[in-house]
Structures are given as structure tokens and as C-alpha cells.
Design brief:
By secondary structure, the protein is an all-alpha fold. The protein is built from 14 helices and 4 strands. It has a two-stranded antiparallel sheet with strand order 1-2. It has a two-stranded antiparallel sheet with strand order 3-4.
């Protein structure tokens, strides 16, 4: 029985679930909308082969080649592009490309940022000063400009799937490392002065063991919050690369930024469907991830959470007092004790 209770308690403490349980009112609505849009994005990427009726670079079937710039119809529900590609299929397949960039970029930046933050915060001294200066210098670089440079260095200007994804992932990794580094470093400095760390030193635990077993677990609790806020930036960087012509070619993978770039000429001709749907995919995905991140950020702030709970409890008390108050009859506000 106790094991089941412990499992239930652990399940309720998971990041998204615990935030949902604490959210009230408008904050809960924002979190639900963000989770819905983010979940839709992930599920679409996972089941893209089943959802998309055509391949991302498919321009013909057994009946012949697709028409260029066809308006939405029964066969192509979102129309076709100037190259004869199905817009709906490319938007669906584009979720996979975006998700791969998010995973690659954020995983690399978390891995490097956490290690550097632990070493810098725990060891301190000259190592801490050097890493802090380098992190501040890197943080000043624009992510998109660095992504363009990395696209040229990695793929030589050839927009392959690997080159486009790695250019965006590495540039985001380099720019976002200082964010994770700062958070982990600050938490490490705070935690190394706690009594349980001092006790571990007394019993002879090594520095590596203390950082890995005692500090790491407590210092990384805010990482899910930073992940959601940075994931949207990864999508925007990849889309910016494609829009500026440094993205992924349509024969290598589907990418929303490239499709928007190709749709610019269509807009002047009244062909709206080639640009509207990839643009909506970017907006809704970024909106969902941002709503989740901002909601988690507010719910992690005890002052905001306290005000929301106080307001909710206040309304509950008012309704309880109103229900238990004596009945009032008549327009003259005459109180009767029946």
C-alpha cells in the first residue's frame, strides 16, 4: 500500500503534472492550451508517415505529376506549391525536422551547460572566472547570425538535411549554453553551502560523487522550464535559416522556413495557401511552447502562486459565508430569523 502511495506521489510531482495541479483560472487555461498545441506538434511529428498523404519531396503519383500552385481541392486539401509539392504533406513532415532540431540543440546545450555550471559553481576560483567571462561573451552573439556561419562551415552552403539541422542545432547550443550554465552555477553555489553537502565531505565523499549524487539532482529542477522556453527559439532559428536561403532543400527534408521563402513570390499573385499554412505551423508551435514555458515560470514563482491561491481561497470563503448568512426577504432588506 505504501509503495502505491509513493508511486502516486512521485507521479504527481512530475514537472508538467505538478504545474497543472497548482494552476488556477486563466493560468490553467494558458497551460492547457500550450500543452494541447505542444502535444499536437509532437504527435504530428511522431505519426507523420501515417498522417501525410504524400512524401515531403513527392511531386507525382500513379496518375501523373501534381499541378503547380493548385488551389486547395479534394486531392490536395491545402493545395500545392510552385514545385508541385503537396502543402499539407510538407507541413506535416516539417514537424519532424523541427522536432529533431529541438532535441539536438537543447540536449547538447543542457549537457554542456550543466557540466560547466557544476564545475564552475563547485570548484570556483580562477576556473569560475574564466568560464563566466567566456559565457558572457558567447551570450552576446545573435543566434541566427551564428547559425548562418555554421551552415556555411558545416555544409559549405549546400543545404542538406544533416547540414541544416546541425547548423541550427550547434548555433542554438552555443548560444543557449550560457543560460543553462548560469542557472546551474547559481544553484550549485547555493547548494554547496547546505548541511547535507558538508556532511558528505565529512564522511569522505569525493568531489565528483558530491556533484553527481547530491548537487546535480537538486540543481536541475528548473531545467524543464528553460527547455520549453528555448525550444521555441530553436524552431524560429531553423525557420530563419530556411527563409534566408541557408535552410534545407525540399528534396532533403521538409522545412517551414524554406517553404515561406518560396511562397513570397506567390503572395503577389494571390496564391495564399503556399505561405499561410507553413506560417501558421510556426506560429502555433512557438505559441504552444511559449505558453507552457511562461505558465511554468509563473507557477514556479511562489509570490504569484500565493496570490492566485489567496484569491481562490478568498472567493471560497466569501461563498461559504454567503451561504451560511441569514436569509434576506423583501426589498426593504428585512432580516428574518425563521
Amino acid at each position: 500500500m505504501s509503495n502505491n502511495q509513493n508511486k502516486s506521489a512521485m507521479w504527481k510531482r512530475l514537472p508538467i503534472i505538478s504545474h497543472y495541479r497548482k494552476a488556477v483560472g486563466l493560468q490553467k487555461g494558458m497551460l492547457v492550451i500550450g500543452l494541447f498545441l505542444s502535444g499536437l506538434f509532437v504527435l504530428t511529428a511522431a505519426f507523420a508517415p501515417l498522417i501525410a498523404p504524400f512524401g515531403y519531396a513527392q511531386s507525382a503519383d500513379e496518375e501523373g505529376r501534381f499541378g503547380a500552385q493548385e488551389a486547395p481541392n479534394a486531392e490536395h486539401i491545402w493545395g500545392t506549391t510552385v514545385g508541385g509539392y503537396d502543402v499539407f504533406s510538407r507541413v506535416v513532415w516539417g514537424t519532424q525536422t523541427a522536432l529533431m532540431v529541438i532535441v539536438a540543440a537543447v540536449v547538447l546545450s543542457i549537457f554542456a551547460g550543466v557540466i560547466l555550471g557544476l564545475l564552475s559553481g563547485y570548484i570556483g576560483g580562477w576556473l569560475d572566472k574564466v568560464i563566466v567571462v567566456i559565457a558572457d561573451a558567447i551570450y552576446a552573439f545573435p543566434a541566427l547570425l551564428l547559425a548562418i556561419v555554421m551552415a556555411i562551415v558545416i555544409s559549405g552552403g549546400q543545404s542538406s538535411m544533416f547540414g541544416g539541422i546541425m547548423a541550427a542545432a550547434i548555433s542554438i547550443t552555443v548560444v543557449f549554453i550560457p543560460q543553462y550554465f548560469r542557472v546551474i552555477r547559481a544553484e550549485t553555489i547555493r547548494l554547496k553551502a547546505e548541511p547535507f553537502v558538508e556532511s558528505a565531505k565529512v564522511v569522505g565523499a569525493s568531489n565528483v560523487r558530491i556533484m553527481a549524487r547530491h548537487i546535480f539532482r537538486n540543481a536541475t529542477r528548473t531545467l524543464p522550464l528553460i527547455f520549453t522556453l528555448n525550444a521555441s527559439e530553436a524552431i524560429l532559428t531553423l525557420a530563419g535559416l530556411g527563409f534566408l536561403g541557408f535552410g534545407i532543400e525540399p528534396t532533403a527534408a521538409a522545412e517551414w522556413g524554406y517553404d515561406l521563402n518560396r511562397a513570397m513570390a506567390d503572395a503577389t499573385s494571390g496564391i495564399w495557401w503556399t505561405g499561410v499554412f507553413p506560417g501558421l505551423a510556426i506560429v502555433l508551435t512557438v505559441l504552444g511552447l511559449t505558453l507552457v514555458g511562461e505558465s511554468m515560470n509563473d507557477l514556479n514563482d511562489p509570490r504569484i502562486r500565493g496570490r492566485k491561491r489567496a484569491g481562490k481561497n478568498g472567493k471560497s470563503r466569501e461563498s461559504t459565508e454567503a451561504a451560511s448568512a441569514p436569509a434576506v426577504h423583501g426589498t426593504g432588506m428585512e432580516i428574518t430569523n425563521e
